[in-house]
Amino acid sequence: MANIIAFSEPAALHYNPFDGDFGDGERTLVDQIVTVPEPPRCHTCGGKLTPGTRCRHLVEQVGDEDEGDEPESIRRTEYWFCQHCCAAMAKDVNDGGDRVGSRTARMIANRERSAGTDCPKSNVTVSETTRHAL
Q: Edge-to-edge, what's the strand order for the sheet holding 27-35?
């Protein structure tokens, strides 16, 4: 049985995980809180999502055939955010904190540790993490 964490779903959706990014003109196609059907990885912390928990699913698209873009230049990107990061988003929206930033820093530290590197802690932001194209 999954350990369910309660958080404000509307507040979590109000948080922009890519605030400050310049982007490529992405437009949001899907941005909702869903029950996780299978364990993808969280875009913010890198952890596996637990099936049965409530998590954020965001799909963005760059380009649009209706606006004259060639089909091969249209790119969709899918992001998943675990319940822990959604709870951090909801709290950050309400009090202006930086819990999401600390979760991202934890992911970077875990990656460095698992790679066996002795690199200094990175100043990488959420916007610089790897995007997963569909």
A: 27-35, 54-62, 75-81
Q: What is the pTM of this model?
A: 0.61
Is 133 a member of any domain? no
E strand or H helix that includes residue 101: helix 99-115
pLDDT band at 129 (very low <50, low <70, confident <90, very high): very low
The pair of structure tokens assigned to 93 is 């929206």
Coil, helix or strand at residue 56: strand
Please give the Cα distance from 84 to 55 (Å, whole number). Answer: 9
Domain count, the chain: 1
Answer for the pair 28, 58: CB distance below 8 angstroms, yes or no. Answer: yes
22 in any annotated domain? yes
Q: What is the pLDDT of residue 81?
A: 92
